[in-house]
Amino acid sequence: MSKRAYSTLILLLAGCQGTIGDAPSAEPGATPPVDLSEECDPSVAPDAELLRIDRRAYDLALRSLFGDESVDAVGSAVTGVPNTQSGQYRSEVEVPSFDVVQSYVDVASSMAFYLTDDPSRLRVLSECLSELSEPLNETDEACLFGFIDDFGLRLTRRPLSAEDHARFVEAYEIGSGENASTGVATLLMSMLLDPRFLYHFEVDGEEREPGVITLTSYEVAARLARVLWKSIPDDSLLAAAEEGFEGPEGEARLREQIERMWSTPEAREGFRGFISEWIALRHEGPATDALLEFATNMVYERDGTLAELFLDRTAFIEDAELAEVYGLPADTRGEVQLGEEHRAGLLTRAGWLETSAIEDTNAGHIIHRGKALSDLLCVPIPLPDDDVFPDDDPADPTEGLRTIRQRFTDVTSEQPCSSCHVRLDALGAPFGHFDFDGAYIDDERITVDEEEHILSIDSSSSVNVGEGTLVDVESAIDISVAAAQSEGVAACLGAELTENMMGREVAPSDACLIQAAQDLLSPSRSVSVREALFAIVTSPSFSVRSIPEAQ
Amino acid sequence: MKKPMTIRRRSFLVGAGGATLAIPLLSSLGQNTVRAQERPTKNFVSYRITNGHFGHQWYPANEAVDSAGGLQPMGEGVIGTRLANLPGEISPLLDAQFDPFREKMVLLRHLDRLDHCNHSSMNGLLGYTGTEGRLPESPENLPPSIDQIMAQHVFGGEISPLNLSVRWSEALPSCSYSISPEGPVRVPGLTAQQAYQQLFAEFELGESEASRRRGLTRSVIDRVLPHYRSVRDNRRLSRADRHRLEQHIEHMDALSRRLESGRGECMPPLEPETGRVRSADVDRAGREQVDIGIAALRCGLTNIVNFYLDPDTLFTGDLHGVDGGHHGASHSTSDTAVESIFNAHQWHMRNIARFAAGLEATESGDGTLLDETMILVNNELGSQSGASGNQLGQYDLNHASYDIQTLIIGSAGGALQTGNFLDYRSGHERGRWTRHIGMAYNQVYITAMLAMGLEPEHWEVGGAQGYGDMRGDKWGRTPLDQVQMGDLRAGLPGVIS
Question: Which of B378, B374, B358 is nearest to B100 (CA)?
């Protein structure tokens, strides 16, 4: 189970830290969402941890620097760098393991020698660099020093200092004793191992007031590239950073860059990655791809709102089985509208509904769905201790003809299970009309002793959809509608966006960032998700950070 | 005479699985590397320089010696000081690249060759030349050059000296001499290509290249690490941030150590370029020979390496700052010529430092391969810096072999005392040239042979003490009774442990 940072925050603030078996600290389903708007203090700068470049960002940065062909050639080395997949953005703050560091060295070494083994590869970086020869003449030196400054700027996301420049020249000299090509190899290696490349340092800005640093424009640019592209700034962004983001002109320049960046495929891909982590998709396949495409298209191409994510019925079908899951002809392809009777937004998509199959029944796993929904809506339910799970599979229909919901209820209705399952099952039950593939089913069909039995499904429930109060629902669509109208869900997504951008668990010092998004995502405002994201990255809080207390 | 053996690939391999170049490069780091052949524990290396030297470029300045406390008695007939006490660089030629070896080398001054003054490869490792007509009546009974004596008596004839040459002409000399009925016969030197073919031709290049790349990668890591430590200490980072960087540093450091453990492994060098060496190739040609020498010792293919690198007219003003060739410059007192000599020597110093560093980087026993080795840097001629030996403007070009350029690096397994600058002036003076009469240079040969474990019986002829003919007095400028002869069975005082 993934544990979202915001969920943790809510838990801590709400005092809901029970483990299974504890008496619930509030009425089931009544956990109040945290309204961080009251805590937003503009004088408080967000904490900022030293983030390490993760695999996705690393891969994209390398591709932007060296091109796809070169990265593909050393691809096996790149895969050693851990990805954020299902890591909830946290791999950037994890303490690096030996394997991670070795992967960085592997990539640096492999890339450097791959490029310098063949002058034609090096020309991708610099025409003149491939023609250097020792001893360097004035033209050669101009080429080398220019490359160091230009490439160093891209890699380290800031203009090189004289010390940086000298250090890279020394790196060249490690190998130049053999020949210029080897010198370039050791130079590239050194650059790719530079801490300013592998880590996002935000330490160069001025201390505008005690304990608060205003990020330099280059650091803001680097944050933007990391957040929107999961990569490093391109030349245009660096050029804008050189001109600065201060004052009205600077703010306009910043906005222009953000919109430019947003319009690129990299931003779309980056947002798709965020969606994948936000929804915590558990499976791979056409259904998941279609769900990601729906959500990404809604936000990216259609400038959709949070409500539309929960209500829209547009789907993109590229698979026969998926078409049939949605009750469409098998040859359906492309953009379609799903039936309004049973489908509304992402919660009724096969990619979200898919569960493991349960033997002898067509039903889906309502507990798994309940857990996934509690995470998605920031209505957390803590994991039980391992030793409280029953030995027998609760889904095994050994006693009587009972629906999946009834079978689970039989097992979890008493302590120590009931305190949490009453909420989990309540969240999962409205999805009872979807089988384990996500197809709509009128009835549950169960096979006992080779005889099929038809059982009616009860999908009614009372659930907390992020509002802190229970809402009576009859179906999954009712939950989708409630989520679309929930301030708590808006705050939840705002926190998710903030967590994604900060690369760490959200903290009280992020209140202003979260609020910046939440205000726009609110059902009362109904501003697009894109604008909410823009609100975060243009918020004053985005370009400051706190200085940790003296160590 | 046995030729240097050709070794097959399996003899080089670094253990099961080997270490092959692949992407990722470091995937095989976990393999332990072992040297395939057991190497005898001592090595002797001669690095010969031609055309004499200028003392003011080679020795510490008098002021530096004075600031280090002056020259103090360091044994009978020798005064000196610790190299570590000298401020700044040891000398213009023994610059910062030799600082890592200060404790592992001995700089010697006022050692005079007595039998011959002028160019001759025999001045390298042979204690006599015969040019003064003083060879015995039965020259076949003379001892060969000291490297040959070592090969025969230290290593039982199982190895042969490896003679590596770079020269302007196709005739490649060496300082290694065997004995024939007519007297000493010079062993030809080898080009880098010839040496490579003899030693490493059957080795798979992939593994060599992998080793080279690991070495470069390690060097880069070592260069990057200080920067990591610097940024780690930024006061704007949190404790958690620093912890992350600290872990990163520790892992990189561990990687470097793993790579280093393979750095000294037995691997062939890059295959040398083919064809005749031209001016533009001189730097490369020198490095190729140095790297072959390092690899040969690492792999136990020989224990004796003789460098005779003499590009001479292949040096050019544009590329090397040597006008008129090395030899040509040695016959002029112009500023350009003096500068040319300096630049030619700098070229040699780079080679010597590279070679020493290569051995130092190779773990062996409780120390390094350098610790097990004696590198003797020598010159066919002496100092040309005039009477004082330290003053510009008093050059006295004579091609005399007084105050011969002599440096020892490594202790031959602890047989030598290192870390000193030693001066063997006798207290007598000449009428011209290098003023102080010093100690007989043949003591250097005796010292080398003793350090390698030889006994006097291995080099003495007819019961006479000493190695070679020391009775010469070229031009009558060095009265033999004023020369320090020393104990001819004990080696140089202050050097032998």
Answer: B358
Supply the pLDDT for residue A25: 34
**Which is nearest to B215 in space by CA: A186, A172, A76, A122?**
A186
Q: Which of A58, A92, A102 to mutate to test the interface with B (most CBs of B within 10 A)?
A: A102
Cβ atoms < 10 Å from Cβ of B253: 15
Which residue of B28, B220, B233, B294 to mutate against A (max A Cβ within 10 Å)?
B220
**Which single residue is written with the structure tokens 């499904």?**
A457
Least CB–CB distance from A106: residue in B25, B220, B234: B25
Tokens of A148: 């160091």
- Residues from chain B that touch A114, judged by Cβ atoms under 8 A, are 23
Query: Looking up tokens 């005749």, which residue turns up?
Result: B276
pLDDT tier at B275, thresholds 50, 70, 90: confident
Nearest to A267 by CA among A535, A540, A534: A534
Place of tokens 């000193």: B420
CA distance A443 to B189: 94
By Cβ distance, the residue of A74, A174, A185 closest to B223 is A174
Question: Cis peptide before A394, with omega less than 30 degrees from 0?
Answer: no
- In A375-400, which positions are buried (b, 16+ CB within 10 angstroms) versus exposed (e)? bbbbbbbbebeeeeeeeeebbebeee
More confident residue, B286 or A86: B286
Answer whether A170 sits within 8 Å of B223, measured CB to CB: yes
Are A201 and B228 inside 8 Å of each other by CB? Answer: no
B236 with A203: Cβ contact below 8 A: yes
Question: Would the pTM count as exceeding 0.80?
Answer: no
Asked if pLDDT for residue A337 goes beyond 70, the answer is: yes
pLDDT classification of B10: cutoffs 50, 70, 90: very low
Neighbours of B177 (CB within 10 A): 23
Q: Which ranges constitute the DSSP H helices of B392-457?
A: 442-451
